[in-house]
Amino acid sequence: ISPAFAQTGAAEGPGLLGAFLPIILIFVVFYFLLIRPQQKKVKQHREMLAAIRRGDRVVTGGGIIGTVTKVVDDNEVQMEIAEGVRVRVQRGLISSVLAKTQPAGSEPKEPGGGEQPRGPSGFRKIRGGKSEQ
Fold it and tell me: Which helix (H) or strand (E) holds 24?
């Protein structure tokens, strides 16, 4: 055998771990950038749907805005979309809650702790046309 053909064995590659490391890193990046935030959104939506009660203003997936008049069961609510027009929709089709109602027994607080209302300048309006601070 001539010395030109007598070569040493080919150098081995980086191994299996080195070959799969970029794929593993890409999967980890996808998990933290795409999958995990989506799971959080689904959980928040599920909690929002569970908290819907009578009097809430909601928007359906089709864009219909209405007020919940009755919670039929775990899967259905009845909502009023116009004066005297009531429809039943599945809870899963509600995309967002615009305004929540106060829980039963809680009274709305007066703005300013019962003080007189203030005008746009921040001064209380009094009789006689003058304002006081």
Answer: helix 15-30
